[in-house]
Amino acid sequence: xxxxxxxxxxxxxxxxxxxxxxxxxxxxxxxxxxxxxxxxxxxxxxxxxxxxxxxxxxxxxxxxxxxxxxxxxxxxxxxxxxxxxxxxxxxxxxxxxxxxxxxxxxxxxxxxxxxxxxxxxxxxxxxxxxxxxxxxxxxxxxxxxxxxxxxxxxxxxxxxxxxxxxxxxxxxxxxxxxxxxxxxxxxxxxxxxxxxxxxxxxxxxxxxxxxxxxxxxxxxxxxxxxxxxxx
Amino acid sequence: xxxxxxxxxxxxxxxxxxxxxxxxxxxxxxxxxxxxxxxxxxxxxxxxxxxxxxxxxxxxxxxxxxxxxxxxxxxxxxxxxxxxxxxxxxxxxxxxxxxxxxxxxxxxxxxxxxxxxxxxxxxxxxxxxxxxxxxxxxxxxxxxxxxxxxxxxxxxxxxxxxxxxxxxxxxxxxxxxxxxxxxxxxxxxxxxxxxxxxxxxxxxxxxxxxxxxxxxxxxxxxxxxxxxxxxxxxxxxxxxxxxxxxxxxxxxxxxxxxxxxxxxxxxxxxxxxxxxxxxxxxxxxxxxxxxxxxxxxxxxxxxxxxxxxxxxxxxxxxxxxxxxxxxxxxxxxxxxxxxxxxxxxxxxxxxxxxxxxxxxxxxxxxxxxxxxxxxxxxxxxxxxxxxxxxxxxxxxxxxxxxxxxxxxxxxxxxxxxxxxxxxxxxxxxxxxxxxxxxxxxxxxxxxxxxxxxxxxxxxxxxxxxxxxxxxxxxxxxxxxxxxxxxxxxxxxxxxxxxxxxxxxxxxxxxxxxxxxxxxxxxxxxxxxxxxxxxxxxxxxxxxxxxxxxxxxxxxxxxxxxxxxxxxxxxxxxxxxxxxxxxxxxxxxxxxxxxxxxxxxxxxxxxxxxxxxxxxxxxxxxxxxxxxxxxxxxxxxxxxxxxxxxxxxxxxxxxxxxxxxxxxxxxxxxxxxxxxxxxxxxxxxxxxxxxxxxxxxxxxxxxxxxxxxxxxxxxxxxxxxxxxxxxxxxx
Lengths: 231, 730
Fold this sequence. Notes:
The structure holds two protein chains of two kinds. Chain A contains seven helices and eight strands. Chain A is of the alpha+beta class. At the A-B interface, helix 2 and helix 6 of A face strand 1, strand 3, helix 2, helix 7 and helix 22 of B.
């Protein structure tokens, strides 16, 4: 399958969109788009999961994870792409040296000839991203749609995400368009991990953030006013 | 004779639903993409732009269409996987006739035979029982061109008054209320107004699951600091982060709106200048709300009075605001009243005709907007004209080149057609793109009615559960197999492009209708070489009407990436936002307030049926599921209906999560697993409606109709819930 983006015809119809080139989802050689996850906006629709299967480098296999926390209490869901760590733990622990970063810092799936299927990476990744697929005896993970991003297109999941919980654009665009701070420094115990992918928090300047969230009083404490007896 | 020819198992074995999991040849087929076709998703009224990748005569994948301004490449899972409805093993590829001895209950016949038999049966039934004894049911997944053609076909070829459409189950309450309040039936705003609103209020619309793309527009408003109010019996995904949640009891929306109007008046959060200059009948609306205090409404709706007061303050004190509503408030026996009560809130605060201001329905079906304008409703002629109005009839007759008297009068609506079949008054039916066996309320009534038909002809691309009852099945076209236009929920006319030809002997729908018209002796009225000619005639027929497409052309629609009607003259730029300058479309230019006293739903809970039922959709399925229950990835997401029930209620009834429960109403019963969740009112259960037969939520729903819109009350019924007996529901 070849990608056919029908460039010439599109140019006739370009409109003022969000993208640097004038169109959301497409970027030029001087742009430096980043991937952003804002879990609070996720609606759990799985458009990302379905679209990931359409990526040219792993057709039919969805490598994005959509976590459902506890449907009994909430509709909160959380999409998880590879965070593409600056110094990836998965590669550090790989005994076969099968996990490589490209020059853009994208951490690739395990190289098929080298991967020994040991699953060290699966166990070690602080974000739970790599998965071992026994039927092909190989670890595969999100590669940020290398086939798309290398041509200036947004990854599939961030292209389709209808709530823009998954977002691809420049840092400047993010701050022009959206609220919240971008965060990419994480601590897991004493291990500091800097990632290429950003997540969104209310205010990154307030110091360490409890990912479980501080609780403020709101209707969420009693959505149906059961305590008040209104129901 | 229209009962099913063979057992359900045999029908499913032959015609599905089977699951299409992968593109033609499999994921690794490596097929060359011959061309990429810009078109739109075939599903909901958002009509997201999408590019389909074609190899030979198969759609083999998609690519985001970033340049289309409405969705900029974004899609929901249905849009991502929509291409898998093509090259599907269940696709109907030749005409069929019911035959109990044939495998699957249908034998292959020639087009000649199928069309001749259909016309013979139409003639026989009409000769024996009168013209109106043959009815037609249509659907608004069809293009504007087909909608228009079907309206003309039913009147001038079938000579029947009894044509109606499945928008009757979707948009009609909003449509009726729009006409009453504003004098025109279109949503009030382009979606680009949503980010400009200081308060966004969603009422009875599970935006995240039914219009996922709209979520991004709402977030853009919130990024500017807008407040979000969500009114729903469930903490739907969008509600999770809302500033204010109004957990309304099913069937009480007009009480909530009335109390908000009461508060707006009490606090003088009114735009007096707007009310004086641009509206009439404010006093009547105010009088009706005089006793609707938040305290009173709290008892009726289950929403705490303080939250009602907070909603009123947010709405009343914000400079701009958009109230978006959908089927939750509309699919009720007072759906029209609910919508008019919402309109009152916009009119009272002057929130119309300005950036970031409007009270707007979110149209549901693919062509839910355009399909309700061009004459395939039972009381309607093109341009949203009234079939009872002599001047409107004369005008349309002049376009059609027929005598005014040749146009039948108003017929009855979808549920009434089914009831008249059941009562023996309607004997024959032709349906296209409508699956009433799943989508109509009270499925027992629908199945009984379909069994009584002397002749049932179906035009469709899959053998839907309704088509299983058919005598003749004519294989029509999928969305990507024909071209035309649809009008999106925004009111934007967009172009649907053909990606592939219909497979096998299947044909494009409009050609089938032309052949039937020819055999029915109406050739002179149906002389078209292509759908563009139908569109041009549609535009002429709409000219001067409420939905005026005069200046629209396919060329402009493509070049301008859509065109918002009204386009009342050639060269007109189109009208993205309605009512600018406070000019409404009633003859006096003013909007109407309506007095909306509260009345309860048609059926209320009692000792025997003590729990409210409400129904709706899940994100991975679309309407009756004719298409989406055939796509593997979508079925995997939510394979079967579940009954959402709050743990407080579940505990009282002795129900554990996952346990089979039987939900029973006065119409029927369904047994399905419980999904015990804290996200639903403790007095209410929710069941999604996409499945047929024993899994159909519509076994339970109430066919009572809104007296104005004739919308059934899908959203409110009284039920009992109990752990299932071994063996399931009887």
